[in-house]
Amino acid sequence: MAAPVQRTAYDLNVVAGRLTADRMGPYLDAAGGPAAAMRLYDWNSAVAGDMHADLGRLEIVFRNAVDMALKNLAAENGWTRPWYAHEPLFRGRRGKVAQEAIATAVHRASRRKRRADAHGGVISELGFGFWRFLCGPAYLTVLWVSALASAFPRHPARGDPRRIRADVERRMKGLHLLRNRIAHHEPIFRRDLARDHAQLLELIDGCVPTARHGPPPSAAPFRPSPSETAVHRPTPEEAREALEAAIAETGFTREELEAQAVAGRFETALAHQTWFCLPPRQSRA
Fold first, then answer.
1. Residue 231: closest CA among 273, 187, 274
2. Which of 111, 136, 186, 235 has most Cβ atoms within 10 angstroms of its Cβ?
3. What is the spatial distance between Cα 147 and Cα 153, in angstroms, rounded to a whole number?
C-alpha cells in the first residue's frame, strides 16, 4: 500500500471564507453544516486528484495506441506525411475542428522542439478532447474500419468496428466529462466513482494487450480482474481498518459518511491512496 499523502494543515474557516456560496452549495446540501461541508470538499479534492492521475495515464496509453494504428495506416497507404496531416481523414464540421486542433499542436510542438513537425511532440500536444472526438460516428468508415478498431485487440467485439467504436466512444465520453469536472474543481462525490474507475481500467486494458496474460481476445472479457489492476478488494479486516482511517481523516462517523453520500452511495471509495470496500453492517437483533 502506498504511503498516504501528507497534507498541509490549514484553518477550515479561513479557506471556507474564500469560497463562494455557489461553489459550496452542493457540499452544504450533502453535509448539512459548514465544517462537515469543508471536510467533504477536502475529500472531493483528494479523490479528484487520484482520479486525475489515472485519467492522465489513460490519455497517454490511449493516444499512443491510436497513433500507432494510424501510423500503420499511413505506412500501408504510402503516405509521405504523418497521418494527422492527411486532410481527407478530417472532413465536415468535426473535421474542421480537428484540423484546427492539429494546426495548434503542430505550432506548439515546433516551437518547443525548435524544429518543424516533431511527430511525438504533436501527439503530446493534442488534448484529451481531440482523442475523444476521434471516437465519434463521423469517423467510423474513414478511421475505425480502416485502422482504429485494431487498436483494441482485446475488445469482445473484435472484428466489428461499428460496435467497438460505439463502446469506446461511450466510455471516453463519460471520462471526458469527468476529467472536465475535475479540471474545473467541480463536485464529483455524487458520481459512481467505482464505475468511472472501472471504465478507465477497461479502456487501458483494451489498448495494451501485452499488459496481461490470458485467453485470446475472442474469449477474454473486456474487464481486467481485480488481481491485474490497482483496484484492491480487501478482506473484511482490511476494509474495517481503511474505514476507521477514513473516519479519522474526515471526522465523519460511518452514519454521517453514508448520509452525506460520501461512501454509502458507492461500492468503493478512495482512502489513503488505495481503494477500500465498506464492511457489511451487522444485522440488528
1. 274
2. 136
3. 12
Burial class (CB in 10 A: 0-12, 13-18, 19+), 202: buried
Report the alpha-carbon distance of residue 236 to residue 253 in Å, rounded.
18
Query: How many CA atoms are closer than 13 Å to the CA of 9, on its beta-carbon side?
Result: 0
From first to last of its 285 residues, what are the pLDDT tens digits of the chain? 445 445 555 555 555 566 766 777 788 788 777 778 888 888 888 889 989 999 999 999 999 999 999 999 999 999 999 999 999 999 999 899 999 999 999 988 888 665 555 898 999 999 999 999 999 999 999 999 999 999 998 888 888 999 999 999 999 999 999 999 999 989 998 888 889 998 998 898 888 765 443 333 333 333 333 333 333 444 556 656 666 666 666 566 655 554 443 333 333 333 332 323 333 334 333
Determine contact, residues 48/182, Cβ cutoff 8 Å: yes
Cell of 241: 481498518
The span from the first CA to the last CA of the chain, in angstroms, equals: 36
Widest distance between CA atoms in the chain: 76
DSSP run (H or E) holding 74: helix 34-76
Distance CA 150, CA 155 (A): 9
Cβ 162 vs Cβ 141: under 8 Å: no
In terms of Cβ atoms closer than 10 Å to its own Cβ (0-12, 13-18, 19+), residue 248 is: exposed
pTM: 0.69
- Please tell me what DSSP assigns to residue 156: T
Question: 274: which strand partners?
Answer: 271
**What cell numbers appear for 176 in the block?**
471526458
